[in-house]
UniProtKB/TrEMBL annotation:
Keywords: Signal
Name of the protein this chain belongs to: DUF3994 domain-containing protein
Signal sequence, start to end: 1-23
Presence of keyword Signal: yes
């Protein structure tokens, strides 16, 4: 009889450990997908400007429609819906940050992004990144710290995203 009790306890313990392991793996996979979404948007918004954006910005034949298509191609798929996408690009995120960089002949490159999931019941991540910036033709570069927050849904799409770049863009003209 004792053997059956020991066997039952061992089986239930193993089953419990297996279930906890599966839950953790599912949570880790979801977290990885969320971080991948956030990182892609940050890379697209803060690394560049690329040749395509430079051509749109500098060409006399380009229109606002070309810029809208650029933003759509680089950002729309990562947002939960049209409203969240439009809110992001209309708040001068999207290509707006890189356009400011072009105005003053700077290139940006995202370095070292750190993520922290908040304690909220919602899927919210705070992030901090190092933004390397370099004046075209210069040998030296500098680094600015940029922070922000991204709220995602269960489908790993961004519902709201804030990039806190502060007065940094205005200081590029100095």
């Amino acid at each position: 009889m004792k053997n059956y009790k020991l066997l039952a306890i061992a089986f239930l313990t193993s089953l419990l450990l297996f279930m906890v392991g599966c839950t953790e793996n599912t949570e880790m996979k979801a977290q990885d997908e969320n971080i991948q979404t956030i990182e892609t948007v940050l890379q697209n918004a803060l690394t560049g400007p690329d040749d395509e954006l430079k051509e749109i910005f500098n060409s006399e034949e380009s229109s606002i429609e070309d810029l809208l298509q650029y933003d759509k191609a680089h950002f729309e798929d990562y947002f939960a819906n049209e409203t969240s996408y439009r809110e992001f690009v209309n708040n001068n995120n999207g290509s707006g940050i890189l356009i400011e960089a072009m105005k003053y002949d700077y290139n940006f490159k995202v370095k070292n992004i750190e993520y922290e999931k908040t304690e909220s019941e919602e899927i919210i991540y705070d992030f901090t990144l190092e933004l390397q910036y370099q004046k075209e033709g210069s040998e030296s570069s500098e680094v600015e710290t940029v922070t922000g927050q991204a709220n995602l849904n269960k489908e790993h799409k961004i519902e709201d995203m804030l990039i806190r770049i502060g007065d940094f863009l205005g200081s590029l003209s100095n």
